[in-house]
Request: fold
Amino acid sequence: VHPRWRLTKVRSGRVATEDPNLLAFPSRSELGKKVRSCFVARPGYLMTSVDFSQLEPRVVAALSGDPGLLEIFEQDRDLYTEIATRIGVTRTVAKILTLGILYGMGAPRLYEQLVLAGCVAGEPPIPMYSLEACEGLIATWFKTYPKVKELVEATCTAARMNGGWAYTVGGRGRLLPGLFLEGYRWPSSKLREEAERQAFNHLIQG
Reply:
């Protein structure tokens, strides 16, 4: 198997593979495990499986300087367990919520992800069966780690000042004209919010 590694396939610039996409094989389902078992090293070679440990949250902690996040990583504690304890949810919900925020996920998409993960069945102490509850979760997360919220706002402000161009630390740019849409009615509001999420996601993933 010789997949193609691409740095231009995804707009944020993160690494992607195709033919086949080795980064997308499921790992938890029985079918996914069977598919993965088909990959074997030829005689005399070893196969390794590598994963970055909470990479995006580490990038956010470094760029935002949020003391709460930095303390977790400096003391080598489990990020999602700590967030779950602070917010009052399970580790699974904390992981979906945290990665969702870093990927620019809004409340509707967060709700969908929680449904898929089976976390919406009235899980105490926060029932997650409404968009309003998901909006509240996102707001609580940002209140818990306020420096991240400041980083999001600063990123969007910088992009607007740069003519709609959002940049990564390495200088990779992405043009987001939706940042300049005005008004608070659909579709302008939705497209502007999406552009703001993309600006932050570009900084972190890129």
Notes: The longest strand covers residues 4-6.
